Prior knowledge:
- The chain is 20% helix and 39% strand.
- The chain is globular.
- A hairpin with a 4-residue loop joins β2 (31-37) and β3.
- It has one domain (6-132): 2,3-Dihydroxybiphenyl 1,2-Dioxygenase, domain 1 (Roll).
- An eight-stranded mixed β-sheet has the order 2-3-4-1-5-8-7-6.
- The longest helix is centred in the first third of the chain and has 11 residues, at 16-26.
- The chain is of the alpha+beta class and 135 residues long.
Amino acid sequence: MIDAPLDHIAIVVKDLDATVALYTETLGFSRVYREIVADQDVEAVGLRAGDAVIELLRPLSEDSPIAKFRGDAATKLHHTAYRVDDIRAELARLKAAGVRLIDDEPRPGAHGNTIAFLHPKSTGGVLIELCQRSV
């Protein structure tokens, strides 16, 4: 994963519409996508940030893991995601190197991407997502 480009930075938000308005109307970012990712219990909005995306995540229920992660905060940084060409090969390489994986197998993510998470206990306390774009 050396030299893997940043794909997106995800922020969990309490008020998605207000945060989207801040980023688009006030800060001038453009919206790339807005979708429900049901199996992750979130609504995701992607905002263009140069070659990367700021991904705003709104929990669909207050008892979801991502809502519990956010807690009482209005917003909270959730993870950084790095783009890889071959997610399966990268997961195998990282596992062989002793990195603890949350996802042993890639799964569908937002915007048609295939994703997998690395455990923060193996990454200095930061939740890292590997992201392979759809073809």
